[in-house]
Design goal:
alpha/beta, GMP Synthetase, Chain A, domain 3, 7-stranded mixed beta sheet, 7 helices, binds S-adenosylmethionine
């Protein structure tokens, strides 16, 4: 039998499958017995959708407790996956960016969710200041709690609202690192970040795009960045420092991380 794909967030296992119900039920009862840390199993019944990037989840078996604490590299994230976006599959990407961040950087995270990128940076590089914007009030409430739980009150500064309205008001901040972890808005966000950032800074962009094979990743990304920023008309030199395929969203669509720097 082909495997059922799943993600584990705290004590909740989320299945992502279109298999018939009898196969799913056989799978969930054995998983619940096998994995002592899994207490609740849910089925994803929609794609991740809307600006808030939430997904519909159906309760299948186990405890009816949908709020959980997800532990990752020593950090703790409290959340309810029915109300907010969260993906445990991005854990390596969070650590990669936290590692690249220089201690003392002033970071702006346009799309912070419950805080996993902002907190990963603040914990690894304690002299950083991370300004974290979030639109979804449920995610923002968890962001506030996670800042406390992870003892980052002096380093992570939360803002509730639309990044496209808030960023232009942050005129006092000299930002040298921007995080744009929302492929859906990559174009508008990159244009705004480009205006806002100190021109020796770094932008960590996420995009999703058609990629036929991994070998054409670089050319796809360069074309996309050129198209958005219209390179030739800008004075600053933009360089693509790193391109990383985070994962395949479907057989031909890649979720891609791109690090851009300016000089
Ligand atoms: C793909 S999720 C990423 C969240 C977080 N960085 C993470 O990895 O878990 C994008 C987040 O951006 C928020 N969002 C969407 N549009 C926004 C906007 N215009 N301004 C601020 N936040 C926004 C969504 O509510 C969602 O929590």
């Amino acid at each position: 039998m082909k495997k059922i794909s799943f993600e584990i967030i705290g004590h909740i296992m989320i299945l992502c499958t279109e298999k018939p119900e009898n196969q799913i039920l056989a799978f969930v009862s054995s998983e619940l017995k096998k994995r002592k840390n899994v207490k609740t199993i849910m089925l994803q019944t929609s794609k991740v959708n809307g600006d808030r990037r939430t997904r519909d989840l159906k309760y299948l078996i186990g405890e009816k407790n949908f709020e959980t604490i997800h532990r990752e590299y020593g950090n703790k994230f409290l959340l309810n996956p029915m109300k907010t976006f969260f993906s445990s599959r991005l854990s390596y990407e969070r650590q990669r960016i936290a590692y690249l961040t220089k201690d003392g950087d002033t970071v702006l995270n346009f799309f912070s969710g419950v805080g996993p990128f902002s907190i990963a940076i603040a914990k690894k590089k304690p002299k950083c200041r991370v300004h974290s914007i979030e639109l979804n009030p449920n995610a923002y409430e968890y962001l506030l709690k996670n800042i406390k739980i992870n003892k980052c009150e002096d380093r992570v500064f939360p803002y509730l609202g639309d990044a496209f309205s808030i960023v232009p008001t942050l005129s006092d901040l000299v930002i040298n690192r921007v995080l744009l972890p929302l492929p859906l808005k990559s174009k508008e966000a990159l244009l705004l970040a480009y205006k806002k950032i100190n021109h020796e800074g770094t932008i960590h962009l996420q995009i999703s795009d058609h990629v036929k094979a991994k070998s054409e990743l670089t050319s796809v990304v360069i074309e996309k960045i050129k198209e958005i920023l219209n390179f030739s008309s800008k004075e600053a030199q933009i360089s693509v420092k790193e391109i990383r395929l985070i994962r395949w969203l479907s057989p031909r669509i890649g979720h891609i991380a791109v690090d851009l720097s300016f000089s």
